[in-house]
Specification:
The complex is a heterodimer of chains A (223) and B (249). Chain A has 223 residues and is α+β, with helices and mostly antiparallel strands. Chain A has 4 helices and 12 strands, in the order ββββββααββββααββ. In chain A, helix 3 runs antiparallel to helix 4. Chain B is an alpha+beta fold. In chain B, the strands form 2 sheets. In chain B, strands 1, 4, 5, 6, 7, 8, 9 and 10 form an 8-stranded antiparallel β-sheet that branches. Chain B has a 5-stranded antiparallel β-sheet with strand order 11-2-3-12-13, with helices on one face. In chain B, a hairpin with a 5-residue loop joins strand 9 and strand 10. The chains are: A alpha+beta (223), B alpha+beta (249).
Chain lengths: 223, 249
């Protein structure tokens, strides 16, 4: 009698795309609000963006239950940090925490594809991009999720990032203004919505700058 | 130094879950299952419907299974999937509500809290590879705020103005997306529910024609007595099925 195989999967892909762009003194983080399973849409109004700290905003796509648990975990850790250090976590610190949290479950991963955006301690925009098990790097812009393959090449074309191999290191943050960056994000989502079935309905855009946090929404195609 | 000569095979054999017969305690597949649950917000609260069938594979074994239950003062829980797991969840919630009442502090768990609790329970069971094989619909009203959410067996959860499980997602949600609005009266809401349940009755093989409608408002939960939907089979194509195939019957 052979051992019974599980006929259910502990993972599901609830789809969606996430993007973040770092600017000289701002950071734009965006994600669509569609939640799907298989070929069905579960809801058109689900936020994938979570504000972890004053200057660190996380956008995650992938398996929603894992994402929810991950975001809750990080929020709890941030609260403890605030109690112990009497200050908010900086974005680079949160970036390291996220990486460690993901790697902790290296052998039963969080099926979450993350982009962390925020302002570093100098007030410059920073974006960190991750894979499901925590490998990360600081970049000037990134896209993750079901539409990432459609979005990333377009961002490469528009934001022409200098090579990380250059010496002396060149700044990866875009010279675009905040409004130009937001416009680019909107364009990118409209394009991704055309061809990716899991991206659509609405895009939620969070803008972090010296004045604080601002949120914008834009309707996308619902088909 | 000499080590005792233990047979190496037995010494190295790891005690895995199946040899400890812990595997037989894990859910592998569902046995007695309920089909879709459909629910949406209406003017005074939440309306929810589910049929009363409990299928045993392809046999419609049980026809009086109550798949919608009130939880505490403010919520309704509807479940599809394994019925025994639903009963287990009701036991968990019983304990939760009991402890909540024992505080005797005038506060009570609202639908949002119950939904969050259920999400955590489902997710944790999935993490242990021993899921509760259900898709749950949790709806309620507290302090005038209407709430309606869903949790799947692996912990995927969300809230929306209308939800459905299983086949309901494919057949009922499109109808609701087209015809639902914020200010449905009770009568209009029931008509809309019946429309969805009728489609499910025609097209879902595990549906039975005995449904239960429940509503929850600020005043409390009401489970209506079960009844059947009128169906129509008098289509021309069904009247003379052999007209295009002489000799058939």
């Amino acid at each position: 009698m052979t051992k019974q195989q599980a006929n259910w999967s502990p993972y599901d892909n609830n789809g969606g795309s996430c993007v973040a762009i770092a600017g000289r003194d701002y950071c734009v983080i965006a994600a669509d609000t569609r939640m799907s399973t298989g070929y069905s849409i579960l809801t058109r109004d689900y936020s994938k963006i979570s504000k972890l700290a004053d200057k660190a905003v996380l956008a995650s796509s992938g398996f929603q239950a894992d994402i929810k648990a991950l975001q809750k975990h990080l929020a709890a850790r941030h609260l403890i940090y605030q109690h112990q250090h009497n200050k908010q976590m900086s974005c680079p610190a949160m970036a390291q925490l996220l990486s460690n949290t993901l790697y902790y479950k290296r052998f039963f991963p969080y099926y979450a594809f993350n982009v962390l955006g925020g302002l570093d301690s100098e007030g410059k925009g920073c974006v960190f991009t991750y894979d499901a098990v925590g490998s990360y790097e600081r970049v000037g812009y990134s896209a993750q999720g079901s539409g990432s393959t459609l979005i990333m090449p377009f961002l490469d074309n528009q934001l022409k990032s200098p090579s990380p191999l250059l010496l002396p290191a060149q700044d990866a943050v875009t010279p675009l203004s905040e409004l130009e960056a937001i416009d680019l994000v909107k364009t990118v989502f409209v394009s991704a919505t055309e061809r990716d079935i899991y991206t659509g309905d609405k895009v939620e855009i969070v803008i972090l700058n010296a004045e604080g946090l601002r949120r914008e929404f834009m309707d996308l195609r619902k088909d | 130094m000499s080590f005792s000569k233990m047979p190496l095979v037995e010494a190295n054999q790891a005690l895995d879950a199946s040899s400890l017969s812990l595997d037989s305690e894990r859910t592998l597949y569902p046995y007695v299952t309920g089909t879709s649950v459909v629910a949406f917000k209406y003017r005074d609260g939440i309306l929810m419907a589910a049929d009363m069938g409990g299928s045993y594979g392809s046999t419609l074994r049980y026809k009086t299974v109550e798949r919608i239950k009130p939880i505490g003062k403010h919520s309704l829980l509807g479940a599809s999937g394994e019925i025994s797991d639903f009963q287990e969840i009701l036991r968990y919630l019983d304990e939760l509500i009991l402890y909540d009442n024992m505080w005797d502090d005038g506060n009570s768990l609202g639908p949002k809290e119950v939904h969050n609790y259920l999400t955590r329970v489902m997710y944790n069971r999935r993490n242990k590879f021993n899921p509760l094989w259900n898709s749950l619909v949790l709806g309620g009203v507290k302090n005038g705020q209407k709430y309606l959410g869903m949790v799947s067996m692996i912990g995927v959860n969300f809230e929306d103005n209308h939800v459905a499980t299983g086949f309901g997602n494919h057949l009922a949600r499109p109808i609701l997306r087209d015809e639902w609005n914020e200010d449905l009266s009770f009568e209009d809401g029931v008509k809309l529910l019946e429309k969805c349940m009728r489609v499910l009755l025609y097209r879902d093989r595990s549906a039975v024609n005995k449904l239960q409608i429940a509503k929850i408002t600020e005043e409390g939960a009401t489970l209506f007595p079960p009844y059947s939907l009128k169906t129509f089979w008098g289509f021309e194509a069904y009247k003379n099925p052999t007209v295009g195939a002489e000799g058939s019957w």
